[in-house]
# Entry
Amino acid sequence: MKKLFVKRVFALILSLVLAAGLLPLLSGTYARADSTAFTLQVEDAVLTISGNGTDATVFRAALSQLNWSEITSLKVTAGTRFPVNCTALFSGKPFTYVDLSGADFSQTVGITAMFVSCSNLETAILTNLDFSSVDEASQVFAGGCNALKTVDLTGSDFSAVRSLATMFSGCRSLTSVTGLSVSSSVLETAEKMFGECSVLSSVDLRNFSTNERTSLYGMFMSCSSLTDVRFSSAKTYKASALTAMFFNCSALRTLDLSRFDTSNVTSMSNMFTGCTSLSSLNISSFTTPLVTDFSYMFDSCRRLSKLDCSKFINEPGSDVSFRYMFRNCDSLTELDIRGLDITGCKKGETDGMFSYSSHIGKLTLGAGFPAVAEAMRLPHPVYGWVNSNAPGTVVSTPSDSFDPMTLLSNSGVNTYLSGGGYGKITGTQLTLLEDGSFGLRFYATLSPNMEPEDLEKGDVWFFFYPQNCSSIQVRAEKDSAGNYYASCNLPAKNMATSIQAEMHFYSRRVRDLDPGEVAPTDYWVKELDEVTYSIRDYACVILDNPATYAKEQNLVKAMLCYGGAAQRFFGNNNNYNICADVGISYTGPALVHQEVFERPSNLPGLSYYGSSLILESTTVQRHYFCLLSGDITDYAFTLNNVPVTPEACTGSNLYYFDTEGFSALNLFSPATIKVVCVNDSSKVLQYRYSATEYIREGLASGQLSGTAAALATALGHLAMEADAYAVQ
# Structure
């Protein structure tokens, strides 16, 4: 065993030792007149600290002289005392494992950035620590702890901490924080405490306390895997700022904030922006007397169907921002904002308040909301808005713009009901569950108020706009029940993003004219409805109902894992459509190799060059061959006994052909490729190859790395789950 004691660094730190009035001892400890001493010992790559390290100057100097290339873990013996200031104490050190259990931090005031930039650190055990004197605990693991997976804080006391800002910010591998207990009555900030912890799925805050001065700005910002935040049902959470608290928590489906006291909050802007999966939100306790900024508060909360904001109030005539407050809430059907007062808003501060929230059918306004103006962008229904007190009279008018917005005057408290439009998109179906392809099917109905002749002769068309892809136009078909439907398959790179679907009605079949036929002069075009939807939206319904969809659970999780990996690989990220896999905790099996590919023997003049995958809405295999001599017509190619003709790769002697697309349900299915010499049928090149063989070969050889390896691994997960699903 190899030991390294402080005596090895004696000569290097002699000047510091003498200046402190210490004598170096050959035993590996420092002795001092007041009997303070500490020992550093390295054994089998583990640094063990014991004794009294309260003299920060000597302690840090000793640490700086260690050979850190020989150290991967840190442990302390019970009772080991640490300095008053532990700021950046172990910054950048190569630890993979840290266990400080039993250490004495009773005199420590600051642990800011204690492990910042420890890029190899995976596990941190900080249990039963006396942090009762710690005032500053910001950035403890921030700034490059990208490998950190688990942190255990069970039994540790943070009763006097003022700042937890960015404590775990940017820990992109963090999956678990257990035992977090913060009972500080002086806590001032937890800003971005878990910011960008993109794989963290749950956080337990039942033992977490706040006060009226606490800023929770961005506390869970971009925690795109977060599905569960556990707040106490017994205590009250207070705060001064909730800005961007759950910004881009795109996996969060339910959230209960009913124990929050918001009477001192001044800003709720962006609080739920990008919570695209959130379908249940309890904010029944929210009061807002001091809030001056509601901008973007619910922007892109695309699954919320009802919002009761009736307790939201602001001082009449006060300058408050409501810009884009409910933008992109395209599932929102009922909204109550009777307490909001816009009479003192400066120009532009109500702009886009209802943008793209086209399905609001019930809207309650109060006396402080005298009008709905065009700039608020509330889409105008074909048959207008009526007051629930007088449902027979349309009280709204559309603006004159090409895309009509609602113009409406209001006096007092009133509830307005939408008269509806020519038609609407009524539902979706994920086609993966039927045939293994990646796509969405949209269903729609037309309003019975439309002209009978148009209903008989007109056509329904869907325009699909997948992100980063060309638009797709599909003429709708009818099912046996008379419902219209149209499908849109998506390439892998769009699995994680939303797709905008517009339903249009074209009278007299103007989109499907026979050759030479002239369009009728009296035709018209109506945009009937528009929704933004994603495969993830459909998948969330399945994941929210595990009893009903038990066998689909892992299949859907693997599908979203694959979609998100593809999203990153193809670089199709944006602010409001975060990768789908990071929002799903996939715990299913890894790829099981059903067969092992053997490279075939070459033919005279022709060799097998390799295979690749093309990730479209289905998975396509492409097989390459290198022509060494002669002509490609000297060889006959078959794919599963069907003749195929290879294409030439421009500028090379390579030729290739593609398989048909393989769905998620048969990625294990191998294709049989056979090449025969035309002039000598005894000379044969033959092999069997599947999509999973490409994955296995690429990962095993190391040719796939980084995002490509993540994509291949996720596709392997999907193959396993789809294969198991197919045989159930």
Notes: The chain has eight helices and 40 strands. Residues 1-35 have pLDDT under 50 and may be disordered.
